[in-house]
């Protein structure tokens, strides 16, 4: 595990009541289960191996030290005398004091083995390798702070992460939509330290084609990247996107999908899901949107582009890896479909945007997968998927759905997942034959 900063990712309040198997199996007492029935909370607490650990700063004996090789914070039992100051300094409750031994206890990852993850039967604990992401944040920030986007919008995280991966040799193309305000400028103040190109919703891939071919002609390797919304991608600008894909243009196209025309008043788009409220699919007479969403990433697979992937910022490690792959494509288009929940349009609390992203994946509403030259592979298998009801009840746009309609929604999700898994199995079989 050398070279990685490996930490446990914990899902809060999803542990079954009274389950403490992770704590029982932990040989180092580095994890604690917490059950508060009156508050309806059941979860676990463990060290997240902070980048700037306050426990080390607070420790008076120097017993705590962060290992530069793997990023894990470890305790020297010889130096620790159990004063408890580290426990008070830890804002995440990740350090515990054994009153009998008078020693501090915390997770040290079992030297990379993570025994608690192995024994957890409920998919609560996972290993998150943060070094590939942390390395990006050692570079200069390309997008300035204070961009004019709504509070809680994960689209900004997706944009900042993309710029970190692609670097300064990049031209970012945009069109009218939520991201345009972050990409273009604030008055006379530029928001990016790279070139940007503002397009119409109907000519983004066409403009990218001309610019990319110019750079190719002068022998310069520049990333031409579109960062545009679902309306531009699946509706207004679909024809030029399809044409660029068919021609094999070497561009990178990222669609941030908030599942409606959020910037202009929350009107439905082709990717708006079945039953969802928008201002053009009202609940009263319509009952929300009457048809299911257009499957844009799968449509791009049928265009036979070299690389297609789905991503969301709740699974940042997966997103970074897919951005890196997209950057390396030289024989055609790379397309990434980024789910970006809109708290305003989805009628959800601002602070729930990342949790909405995570639940979209964990209910299989938005599976994470990639296709390399048509060979499909699921990149995040959900072992114990949650019912779709737990996802749609987080949002007001689905609050009108009755149990029967939710069952139909679940059936749609299951059918789409079944098709995806079938294609993944076929791709694996074809690869073995080849």
Summarize the structure.
By secondary structure, the protein is an alpha/beta fold. 32% of the residues lie in helices and 19% in strands. The chain has 2 domains: 6-129, 2-Layer Sandwich (Alpha-Beta Plaits); 138-433, Rossmann fold (3-Layer(aba) Sandwich).
Number of domains: 2
Largest sheet: 8 strands, mixed
Indicate the mean pLDDT. 89
Using only C-alpha atoms, the radius of gyration works out to 24 Å
**CATH fold topology of the largest domain:** Rossmann fold
Q: Which secondary-structure class do the elements indicate? A: alpha/beta
Characterization of this structure:
With 434 residues, the protein is α/β, with parallel strands linked by helices. The protein folds into two domains: 6-129, Alpha-Beta Plaits, CATH 3.30.70.20; 138-433, Rossmann fold. It contains 15 helices and 18 strands. The chain has helices at 21-25, 54-58, 85-89, 115-119, 131-136, 154-166, 180-183, 204-217, 230-236, 238-247, 296-302, 316-328, 353-362, 388-392, 403-433; strands at residues 6-10, 31-36, 41-46, 64-66, 73-75, 95-98, 103-106, 125-129, 170-174, 185-186, 189-190, 195-198, 223-229, 252-257, 307-312, 334-339, 369-372, 375-378. An eight-stranded mixed sheet has the order 12-9-13-14-16-15-17-18, with helices on both faces. It has a two-stranded antiparallel sheet with strand order 1-8. Strand 17 (369-372) and strand 18 form a beta hairpin. Helix 6 packs across helix 12 and helix 8 (204-217) runs parallel beside helix 10. It is globular and about 70 Å long. The two termini are 32 Å apart. 40% of the residues are buried.
């Amino acid at each position: 595990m050398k070279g990685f900063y490996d930490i446990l990712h914990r899902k809060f309040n999803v542990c079954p009541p009274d389950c403490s198997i992770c704590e029982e199996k932990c040989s180092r007492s580095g994890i604690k289960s917490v059950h508060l029935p009156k508050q309806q909370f059941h979860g676990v607490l463990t060290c997240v191996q902070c980048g700037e650990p306050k426990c080390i700063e607070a420790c008076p004996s120097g017993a705590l030290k962060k290992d530069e090789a793997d990023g894990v914070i470890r305790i020297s039992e010889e130096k620790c005398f159990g004063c408890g100051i580290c426990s008070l300094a830890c804002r995440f409750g990740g350090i515990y004091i054994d009153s009998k031994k008078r020693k501090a206890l915390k997770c040290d990852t079992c030297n990379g083995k993570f025994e608690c993850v192995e024994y957890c039967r409920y998919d609560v604990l996972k290993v998150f390798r943060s070094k590939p992401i942390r390395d990006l944040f050692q570079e200069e920030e390309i997008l300035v702070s204070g961009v004019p986007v709504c509070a809680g919008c994960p689209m900004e995280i997706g944009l900042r992460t993309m710029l970190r991966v692609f670097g300064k040799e990049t031209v970012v193309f945009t069109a009218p939509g939520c991201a345009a305000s972050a990409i273009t400028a604030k008055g006379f103040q530029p928001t990016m330290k790279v070139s940007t190109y503002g397009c119409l919703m109907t000519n983004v891939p066409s403009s990218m084609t001309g610019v990319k071919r110019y750079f190719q002609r002068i022998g310069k390797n520049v990333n031409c990247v579109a960062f545009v919304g679902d309306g531009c991608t699946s509706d207004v600008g679909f024809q030029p996107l399809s044409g660029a894909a068919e021609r094999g243009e070497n561009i990178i196209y990222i669609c941030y999908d908030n599942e409606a025309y959020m910037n202009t008043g929350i009107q439905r788009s082709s990717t708006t899901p079945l039953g969802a409220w928008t201002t053009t699919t009202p609940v009263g007479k319509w009952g929300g949107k009457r048809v299911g969403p257009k499957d844009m990433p799968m449509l791009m697979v049928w265009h036979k582009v070299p690389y297609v992937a789905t991503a969301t910022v709740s699974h940042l490690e997966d997103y970074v890896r897919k951005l890196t792959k997209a950057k390396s494509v030289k024989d055609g288009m790379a397309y990434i479909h980024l789910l970006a929940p809109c708290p305003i349009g989805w009628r959800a609390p601002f602070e729930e945007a990342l949790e909405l992203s995570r639940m979209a994946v964990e209910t299989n509403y938005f599976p994470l997968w990639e296709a390399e030259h048509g060979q499909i592979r699921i990149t995040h298998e959900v072992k114990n998927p949650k019912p779709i009801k737990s996802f749609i009840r987080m949002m007001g746009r689905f609050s009108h759905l009755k149990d029967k309609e939710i069952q139909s929604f679940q059936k749609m999700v299951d059918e789409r997942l079944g098709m995806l898994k079938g294609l993944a199995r076929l791709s694996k079989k074809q690869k073995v034959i080849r």
